[in-house]
Amino acid sequence: MITLKINDIEVTVPPGSTILEAAERARVFIPTLCHDKRITPYGACRLCVVEDRKKPGSLIPSCFTPARDRMDIVTDTPGVLEAVRTQLQLILVNHPLDCPVCDKAGECTLQDLVIRYNIAEAPFGTDRFARYVDRQSPLIERDMTRCVLCGRCVRICGELQGRDELEFIHRGHKTVVATDGGRALDCDFCGLCVSTCPVGALNDKLFKDRSRVWKLQKETTVCSHCGLGCSADFHLEQGRLRRVTPTVFADGKKGLLCARGHFGWRAFESPSRLSAPRLRRDGALWQTGWGEAIEHAARALDGIRRTHGATSLALLTADHLTTEEARVCGSIFRDTLGCADIGSLQAAGYRQILSVLGAELGPSWEPATVTDLSEAEILIVLGGGAAELHPTLKPLVNGLMRKGGRELVVLSSWPDTLTRRATLALAITAGYAEDFFAELRDALSSERTHASADVARFGVDTCGLARLIALLGADRKTTVLVAPDPFGDNLQRARLAALLHDRARPILPLGAQVNSAGALRKAGLSSCGAAADGLTLIEAIEAGRIQALYLLGEDPLETLPEPARVRAALQRLDLIVCQSPYETAVTDLAHVVLPSALIPEKGGSILSVMGFENEIRPVLSPFGQCRPDREILRDLAGALGREDTPRIASPSVAQEQSGPARSAMPQDAGHGFSFRLTAVPSLFGDGLLSRQSPDLAQIRRGLRIVMNGEDFEQMGLGEREIVEVRTPNGSARAEAGHDAAIPRNLLLLRHAAGSAAGLSLIRPGTDVVPAAIARIGT
Amino acid sequence: MSKALLKGLALTLKTFFRRPVTVQYPDEKRPVPERFRGRPVLLAREDGTPRCVACGLCEKICPSLCIAVAAETGPDGIRALAGYTLDLNRCAFCGLCVEACPVEAIAMGSEYELAAYGREPLVYTQERLLAAPGRGAAPERMGEGKP
Ligand code: SF4
Ligand code: SF4
Ligand code: SF4
Ligand code: SF4
Ligand code: SF4
Ligand code: FES
Fold this sequence. Notes:
- The complex is a heterodimer.
- By secondary structure, chain A is of the alpha/beta class.
- Chain A folds into 5 domains: 2-90, Ubiquitin-like (UB roll) (Roll); 127-269, Alpha-Beta Plaits, CATH 3.30.70.20; 288-347 and 516-642, 3-Layer(aba) Sandwich (Rossmann fold); 350-509, Dimethylsulfoxide Reductase, domain 2, CATH 3.40.228.10; 675-775, Barwin-like endoglucanases, CATH 2.40.40.
- In chain A, the strands form 8 sheets. Chain A has a 7-stranded mixed β-sheet, with helices on one face.
- In chain A, helix 8 packs parallel to helix 21 and helix 9 (348-361) packs across helix 16 (491-501).
- Chain B has a domain at 38-136: Alpha-Beta Plaits (2-Layer Sandwich).
- The A-B interface holds A 99-103, 105, 133, 135, 141, 208-212, 214-215 and B 53-57, 60, 71-73, 77-80, 102-103.
- One iron/sulfur cluster binds at residues 223, 225-226, 228-230, 257-258, 260-261, 390-392 of chain A.
């Protein structure tokens, strides 16, 4: 421990702390401009200077100077104050007087410091050099006239987001922050640069000119776009949401958010929000009152159950229920109605992995926590798309990797975000990931040391594999992340994870929706029966076993492959109840529509994938006549009670562990299909909520197809050209892009969820289909 | 006794031939002094558009909470005024809004005849608050109220 004095206050700090951190502990203010606790100190602004009494006259930048024992620091000598004032005046030489029209006013570090140090004159004049303003980029405005060149955006984009989208260009007084070639932003849109900019140079376009910061009321809550449950600050002006920013924690450190969390909030006020209950009468949906809608739903459910038995009812949940609501839901559907087909489409992979792990490891098993992640020396990711499913994992992992001495192993059949950061990336031939995981499991469990020869046929580099096996043998803290495939099977990777856990490694299943973890681990609303998987559900409907479908925010038409087949199946049903916040494709087929509230509009507990329990309270008022799911379910239970429904326990349906028959690679390859296509998760969210945001839609830019750069050139495609993609199943138009990391002849399909054309390309039960591309008009 | 009476009569006689000081309000009006604080007015640029840049500082400082400023992004991409409302029902004529304005877009006008038949007409919108270009500013004010 180091003991030093700051303005005569004695403090003790751990070794490695900076003088700034020591001053914080002593509650002494030191001005900073280029410092953000999330990134490494840089020393660009020199506002944080202090003096050591033992070395009078020399100014020390405190943000990156380590504290040493018995230092005697003073922060307010005339020399220090003079230096700070001069420094501020020098910054103002190039800073416009934009405060009245700048959205940062009121929370601007420069403004605060100029007022604090009482700078009223400009001795160096204001010789301004014209700099560019970028108003073209989506979601983020860059006004470089206001930039103070602190480099925070450049560093956070490179260090944490790993994107390196922003860079300093030019020299001397012409220096500006820009993208390469000065183009508009085309990046992850994580908004971290906006969150770190100390002045109004980087602005959130959704907030720009809408309000003023002093009119906002801040509510800390949880992002509901995925199951990571990042802490988010909602800023409200008289009850209306104006912006969302990363939470500032008690120690002054800001949190992390991704594009969905930062810019996806207008989904809460989307025009497709359902505002009143509807009932189908004479073939059309009519608006009705809550009482009638719920009575009708209860009567219809009860009728079907009486005529066709309890096995004719299936429930799909988007896992946007709070834990309490999921419990109520379980008690109604499982215990009262005897429903034995419960599942989720959007969180199917997560649910499958969790149930396999639960079955293999026993009930006492607990998933990894955030500590397991941050303390791990080796991170192993099974499956691609971990950071696409939960984008904040990317800065989180980048932050960990920056500390050095850690290994990141990614086993994926496509080059996802984490692959690029991996110290050991094992690429598996697309379509063979599950087979490879099964093989690897066999090899590891039978202690075969020469496993590499067997698995090489999956395209995996044998040297890399040998290193992985060596790493597994090493006695180092290891955490395993399991990322599900959006449309394929996940059984083998879950079993492999279970095997790896036997060596006392924490396992973190990914791919959860906002409260999947709570529904499964706290409320016990786990998947069962045919509904555990989209394909088996459709088969059960086609076979006539399932007659009624209760949808809690799910939409099979927007989530499952082969929408035409799904539509035909859904049309066979006697009853579809949509209890959803949004009007989606399936609403038109519904018999009863019950508008439900979104997570920020209700209160309750939410469990994140990393096991963090959040108690949230409502921060937004419910939209239209929407009601929280717990109220709807409670009334439904009441109405069912009046129907005098006898309680029956769910018939014990044999748990189908294996799922439907799946083929690794369809046999009909060839026939002019020179590519293989695999659908991958999107950074901008495939979930119901993310798809409803107009702003995320703007950066998703519809269906996209990404291929190897050489393939791209060979076809003579132009940047962002719209091409026709064909598979044996269907065809669609998509924007073409390229990426050198993608193997040749592989196509990555992005943003298929929510797009009927995109979903028609893929085939259920397999993750790879043969495909061909054609230019439009040729 | 007669001395006092004569004194009074002399005064009457003296004022009898002076010009009367009574202002025949409302037929006649007195000019308002330069620093008079009448109804706040929004000042206009040469082209008749409001000078206001919608910074919201007047709204923030107003002790009676009578100002509401709405902003939008102007055609040049910079913050612009979308709507300005001032509720005279609540205005205390304190002039703090004028002090706060960084671009001299609001001034205390000379209008003081503000009675109305209800509360509604006293909620002034941007159109009614906006003075003609070149008018409403302090220097021109002296002459305005002259009969
Ligand atoms: S939004 Fe994120 S990825 Fe894009 S420039 Fe900013 S920090 Fe970089
Ligand atoms: S844009 Fe903002 S964060 Fe980036 S260098 Fe300029 S002032 Fe710093
Ligand atoms: S990672 Fe998930 S929870 Fe975190 S901000 Fe993004 S969508 Fe929200
Ligand atoms: S004069 Fe005073 S009370 Fe009236 S609007 Fe201005 S600040 Fe508000
Ligand atoms: S202070 Fe001035 S510029 Fe700002 S909103 Fe009020 S009138 Fe407009
Ligand atoms: S905060 Fe230390 S140099 Fe900028």
